Amino acid sequence: MTNAAESGDTPRPPGHARAGDSTHPADRPTIRVDARPEVGRSISPDLFGAFFEDLNYAADGGLYAELVQNRSFEYSPEEAADWHALTAWKPVELGGGRGSVGVVTTDPLHPANPHYAVLDVTVTGEGVGLMNHGFDGIPVQAGASYVLSLHARRTKGPTSPLTVRLEGSRGTYAEASIGEPTGTWTRHETTLTSSGTDPEARLVILATGPGTVHLDLISLFPEATFRGRRGGLRADLAQAVADLKPKFLRFPGGCVAHGVGLGNIYRWKDTIGPLEGRRQQRNLWGYHQSAGLGYFEYFQFCEDIGAKPLPVVAAGVCCQNTPGGPRGIPMDEMDSYLQEVLDLVEYANGPADSPWGARRAEAGHPEPFGLEYLGVGNEDAINPEFRERFEMIHRALRERHPEITVVGTVGPNPTGEEFERGWEFARKLGLAMVDEHMYLSPRWFLQNTRRYDSYDRSGPKVYVGEWASRGSTLRNALAEAAFMNGLERNGDVVALASYAPLLAKSGHTQWTPDLIHFDNTAVRLTPSYHAQRMHSTHQGDVWLPHTVTGAPAAAPPPDPLRGGGVAFTTTDTQVDYRGLRVTSGRADYTVEVQARKNAGAEGFVIGFGAVDTPDHYLWSLGGWHNRSLTLQRRCDGFVEDLDRVPGPIVTGRWYDIRIEVVGSIVRCFLDNGLVHMVEDDRTPPETFSVSCVRDSATGDLLVKIVNLAPEELVADIRIDGADRVAARATRTVLAGDPVSSLADPHISVIEAGKAFECAVSPHSFTALRLRADGEPV
């Protein structure tokens, strides 16, 4: 079977035969690359980047190296039912000390963070104070130094120093006196060097004299942060991101960007300047954002790792999943919001003597950050409120900053009515780029390696801004690598792509899958991470025509519509069913039933097709907290949405439900009204995928091969038309058990040249680099 014959009729230089006419065995793949200097197609040099969202404790307790949790006493029950201003803190009385600890808001350090701790000491003893256990403990290393800072004020009693300690299961690791608080808020700092290693140490702050002391913004950072930046990023996590060599980095999300409710929208101005002046808020994913990792730190990190910044701002509306639905910023406030967006561009790019460029310079960076891309909106419903506000923002950016590429949004799914409305709106406005999202099964990605082959080259470019295959195995990584081959082949229309989410802290994960897993002391890289890194470090800017012959034939996928039966399920809901009737023909069938919701938060789910296998269909009525009707496919054991429309299920009402399956077409009716009509995708999943590119900066040729077959293959590789071809190639291979969540790449050197053989392991992703400074041919 001929597979991936991207250039079947490409002219060949004289004396060069076409693929398949060699004397080599016909039962092995042959990859023939047209490497003539004058051929090839320019593709995006920024194609593969990274996506950061404060999800799964990615910022506080993660990439942001702060070791003290709730350092400003701003946690509240509005964020979590069992939280309060002293969450993560414990009052302590040592050596006979007596007193009390409270939190008040009178005359705070800064109005943006009104809460602070009050220590009232009546009997001194060894001291009265607070203990903080950090985020699952404070990890310390013997010989490592930690910078402790705090703001303090004494309102009663004689002046006396504070004592600060690092303690753990083996006693005190470090201790120091810090400052003598006076009647005004003053910042104090000291360095603690630990005498021991302990992953669960604690920080203790003690008042050592009688009277009243106020404390706020109590902070502890490892001295060894990424690039040695004070108050910066956790070194090992930041290095793992840097090692991806991302061409760009998206921030702050995702759903975090447009927030739950208008008051929760991520406002960039609240995240710059002195820490005490940054507005903290509830994190959409159920915890707290200190804003310590704000826009300045983000821009600085991009510069440190050589990634272009791609910030995303809300499109003037909050998340459509907000209780009560999406809401728009009032129109009489939109001028102010438009200015806020324009000011972000000035903060990033303006001269140091401009109003917002001066704020950047005050932070220590007088030179511009070089912003090129700006996302507006995230997975928004394409409703009138969104359209009006997005168009205002887009117009203002186009008029004031035509040099900025505005990235729009086309909803949360890669198909469906919302997706089509988003694309129609983008074309109407003449957007430069739109953001597509997809979290689907490995099979979907293998069936859609050619998704972008037929996209309009004259329309908006595509940013595949959030995508991942469901699962964390090597098979996921291989499916993703094959899909990325397709993105690279279409790099003239797909300008950017980033896997998401990036980070996940063990024990604090709200979303899976994720690229990098970590705890307080270790980082675990997934097979998907290695696949992303292999692509990003073998990225070119010219796609080269090539043919592939003799590759393994792809088998058709299982048929989720045939066999099995009907299944009924609910989630936290009480439902009555009656009148089930199944009418079956030779190849087609109809399912009819009546259903009534009696109580609960959701609706009902009807499974049909091969319900006793990992591959079947589900119709969810009243899902997503009773806000939608969704036709889903269970594929490879994972549920993926095929079509979603708004629609709650009313309690106490009987509904007539009918599902018709005719061949590969599924139609779903509610009270005789057509809700969904989809065609099951019977495309054979790709099993052997190839991409060939040139890096113009180095002249190197890069060949990437994904083999999902269970046997080793030997590929014949022919490089046609190149003036010079390296006698050896560097080969990086990611291979192993396809169901394992552990796999590491192996690097070796193989013989190459204009014609060579390359062993391709079973279940593998192979990246070859042929250096341009090789021997002439």
Oligomer: single chain
**Backbone structural class:** mainly beta
C-alpha Rg (nearest Å): 29 Å
Q: Give the biggest sheet.
A: 8 strands, parallel, barrel
The portion of residues assigned to helices is 10-25%
Secondary structure tally: strands = 45
General form:
globular
Name its key features.
777 residues; mainly beta; single chain; 7-stranded antiparallel β-sheet; 11 helices; 45 strands; disordered N terminus; 8-stranded parallel barrel; 15% helix
Provide an overview of this structure.
The chain is mostly beta strands and 777 residues long. The protein contains eleven helices and 45 strands. An eight-stranded parallel beta barrel has the order 3-15-18-19-20-21-22-23, surrounded by five helices. It has a seven-stranded antiparallel β-sheet with strand order 2-27-39-40-45-42-43, with helices on one face. Strands 4, 7, 8, 10, 11 and 13 form a six-stranded antiparallel β-sheet that branches. Helix 4 packs across helix 5 (355-362), helix 4 (334-349) packs across helix 6 and helix 9 packs parallel to helix 10 (527-536). 49% of the residues are buried. The model is unreliable at 1-25 (pLDDT under 50).
